[in-house]
Design brief:
This protein is globular. Strand 10 and strand 11 form a beta hairpin. It is about 15% helix and about 35% strand. The strands form 4 sheets. Strands 2-1-5-8-9-4-3 form a 7-stranded antiparallel sheet, sandwiched between helices. With about 190 residues, it is an alpha+beta fold. Bound molecules: flavin mononucleotide (FMN).
């Protein structure tokens, strides 16, 4: 082992799937890339980190709704593009040729093409964590996944569906793709 700069510690556990977070405020849809996410228990509650330096944050604060979509490797360059320009001055849906569908419960714009799954979410009123830790808590109100890669309640990554695998951010423009599934042996009685 070699000592690590504390500012790099997050990189060790960052690589959950990269997500696209869509919002809509004042009739304008926007989308940003997020890799800092967290699952909260078995309930459909999630946290993600973003803040007022992003245009999306104002929409999140105002509307308190979003869709979290999980892009596939096919969308890699678009995912990076979305995460390196701002809805402040760019209509990202037009720029990247993305179609927005309406979420079934809240009507929030959602991206399905090039994505393996999406979750339409309502933000939980936790202003303290938003202000102090730039972390939003979200409750999922509707979700869908592509059965070609998510079946029986779990991801099913195989060589024959590689184009549908999820992206995992390693930093500095590097990503890993989720590859084949390996199965652990159940613990035997001692
Ligand atoms: C791979 C990748 C991961 C990112 N992860 C995050 C993140 O977790 N939180 C965040 O606030 N910004 C993240 N960003 C940056 C935002 O997506 C970026 O600032 C974007 O331009 C915000 O768009 P907006 O101003 O339209 O909201 C990430 C960007 C990339 C390319």
């Amino acid at each position: 082992m070699r000592q690590l700069k504390l500012s790099k510690a997050f990189t060790l556990i960052e690589p959950g799937p990269v997500v696209l977070v869509t919002t809509c405020a004042a009739g304008r849809a926007n989308v940003m890339t997020i890799s800092w996410t967290m699952v909260l228990d078995f309930t459909p509650l999630f946290a993600f980190t973003t803040g007022p330096w992003n245009h999306s944050f104002a929409a999140l604060e105002q509307q308190r709704e979003c869709v979290i979509a999980i892009p596939t490797v096919d969308l890699l360059d678009t995912v990076v593009g979305i995460g390196t320009c701002s809805g402040r001055d760019t209509d990202k849906f037009a720029r990247f040729g993305i179609a927005a569908l309406a979420g079934p419960v809240l009507g929030v714009p959602l991206i399905e093409a090039g994505c393996a799954a999406w979750m339409e979410c309502r933000l939980i009123p936790e202003r303290h964590t938003e202000d102090a830790y730039d972390t939003c808590f979200a409750e999922v109100v509707a979700a869908a996944a592509d059965p070609a890669v998510f079946a029986d309640g779990r991801w099913d990554f195989r060589a024959d569906n590689a184009a549908l695998h999820t992206l995992h951010h390693l930093g500095a423009g590097n990503f890993a793709r989720a590859s084949d599934v390996i199965r652990a042996q159940p613990l035997q009685a001692a």
